[in-house]
Amino acid sequence: MHKFDRDQVSKFKSLLTNQNKILITTHYNPDGDALGSSFALCRYLKNKGYQVSVLVPNEYPGFLAWMPGNKDVIVYSKNSETADILIDEADLIFCLDYNAIQRVNLFTEKLEKSSAIKVLVDHHLQPEPQFDFVFSVINTSSTSELIYDLINAMGDKHLIDKEIANCLYVGIMTDTGSFSFACNHPHTYEVVAELVRIGVDTEQVHRLVYDTYSEHRMRLLGYCLSEKLQVMHNFSSAYIWLTKEDMKRFNVQSGDTEGIVNYALSIKGISFAAFFTEKRDRIRISFRSKGDFSVNTFAREHFNGGGHRNAAGGDSFMNMQETLKTFEMLLPNYLDDLKKASLHGDIF
Ligand code: 5GP
Ligand code: MN
User: Fold this and answer.
1) How far apart are the first and last CA of the chain?
2) pLDDT digits (tens, 9 = 90+) for 61-111
3) Which residue puts its alpha carbon closest to atom 22 of ligand 1?
């Protein structure tokens, strides 16, 4: 199976031969796929003899901090001077798991100004035209799957070792919610089968990522579900919201709120879920949906965001109450689509 144009791959291959310093970047609040694809690509390129670094905008949760490559990562929010030098000196910059430069948030301007060749590898809808080389495939589980495909297309499958395989597996597993969405493609399982053959222990990886809740994170989840969940069956929608006080009370650390939105979506008959968290200067929102209801469109049209059809994010610059009111007032406009999407999965 060839996801990429052969000409493009061979152009890319000769382009790569002439590079000295390579920088791999990924999006703000890096998730399992952002980190998995970055660490895997970094190790592959290092094994090929390149000088490579991984730069992430900000810190990420502990349940992702065990992957090979984690020790060497540069975090912009902690070490911006080193990061700025790396950006200045890079000949080629990979942009992994994001479709617009502003998604790196803290070093957007720096990246925009860089004269390095920018190579996008991504699976988000509507990539922006700021990249020199684009490997964008929407109908794929994850950027990690695309990195596997790219290494394969380069004729280097034999260079995928156990460490690289583990990183790629984390990306595929987390971006499909443990194989529950965005994964109805035989190819995803063919890649996974190959990764298992190379030595991934899928049960161990699952434990390392998902069975690491701290006590306060578990209690936060309980609080969200019992006290902060609003279900609107009329609109097949549900949301959860957390204020700054809530987060202080449960000592919320980065990554602790990851995945909470999915609980709202797992209620029968609910096709649209949102999760609102109060930040210093805005309300951050995660959207999830079932079926054909596009949260990418919803987030783009109303909340300065975007993402995928069934998983997207956005921001509101109103206060929490106004944001929730605005959200609720928008729902009637989508009633038919929400109802239709709520039937998703009921008919076999
Ligand atoms: P999450 O809710 O997990 O933060 O994000 C869900 C998906 O939407 C992820 O794939 C993420 O990359 C994408 N996403 C989140 N926030 C934004 C945003 O503000 N803009 C865009 N374009 N995509 C986003
Ligand atoms: Mn991804």
Assistant:
1) 29
2) 889 999 999 999 999 999 999 999 999 999 999 999 999 999 999 999 999
3) 306
